[in-house]
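ligand=aspartic acid
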Amino acid sequence: MKIVKFGGSSLADGERIKKICDIVLADPDRGIIVVSAPGKSENDPCKVTDMLIESATAALTAGLDNARRYMDQIVARFVCIAGELGVPEAGEGVKTDLYALLSREMVSRKNFVDMMKAAGEDNCAKLVAAYITSLGHKAVYANPGEFGMLLSDEFGNATVLEKSFPLLRENLAAMDGIVIFPGFFGRTEAGEVATFPRGGSDTTGAILAAAVKADVYENFTDVDYVYAVNPKLVRNPKPIEIVTYREMRELSYAGFQVYQEEALLPVYQAGIPVNIRSVNNPTCPGTRVVARREGEAGSVSGVSGSARIAGIAADNGFTSIYVTKYLMNREIGFGRRLLTIIEDEGVSYEHTPTGIDDVTVILRDSLLANGKLERIIERIKAELLPDDIRIVRDLSLLVVVGEGMKHGIGIAATATSALSKAGVNISMISQGSSEVSMIFAVESGHADDGVRALYEAFFE
Ligand code: ASP
């Protein structure tokens, strides 16, 4: 059994929906399909979810008549899709459902915005089910609340409740035909619609895959593979055929945004492989994300080479705070007090490489606005009495990722010599304790050159 998820750009219009239905029907194991709301296309510059949020905001701030003007556009979009799919009566159902959301009573509910957001996925699933049925196949729309997708009552930011898993398993097992399950939402124990954070259809797919113990979670996007480096920086980069969960986490941390990484926790915990595939090239096997690569331990030795490196990633927008104090290593509680100052500002830290008498804390620039950095510096100076404190802003992190790194020798040497040949100055090096990645902080202006140099050194 496969759980298959399609993102909004694959559902943006009738033609695209027909294409994904062909993919579904091409494999009898594709029994549970998770759909997002229609996304952007050449003809439609807006995602339906964004339009629904606009309409909800208008209802709350500018009145129902205003909200209806936005809703007219959303309804027109769904009706058009239904027409393209040859299921106009299903389009009429969507129309009734959407306008029913804009009543005084609905707007007064605390989960009004969640109900509006959920309507994108919900109605899209209804149209997909109607279309597959019209082709003569058995397909059913699954209402997430009725199927047991129980969520916390943190509206807009809900998480799944443990008791959902057995319920979903039981209800899905009882189904006959292809199940079309809308992503992004469920219901609270009190029966109110609640949504996951944005991009939450990936979460729905992962929960269903874990619930039914699927053989694989197929996540369809518009790329053939995840590549070993950003294709915008290197021409014809090496496709990644197989990557471990931990490698994928490191790659996504530093810029590889193929799917919502938090979303995949349920499949990771259940050890279910994820297959990232393309709707435009459905015969391409895509990238498989697995718990463990077969025969990996001990399969490499000594020399560096692409076998042990999965990919090179990079992310911008970091600040480092370097603090040095003579005999820091003997001062009990120094690290704790330093991190407490950062915590008191509500900022999470990314890395803390240390020396004997110094420590660097790397933070994301985006978390340091509104005087937070200045307050952190003042408090470090006043409370920790360092000999010196230096701040470097606008750093990029280059990340070399590969589980096999721990068995190899010379990875750091290969990386640093590549960076030095490219004239890239390294401000900080950190090898995570797990030895899945090695991180180099460099000035942002040198990041792209650094990524190319690292890719060349390990892959070409
Ligand atoms: N439609 C929702 C969003 O745009 C959820 C998703 O597409 O995964 O965030």
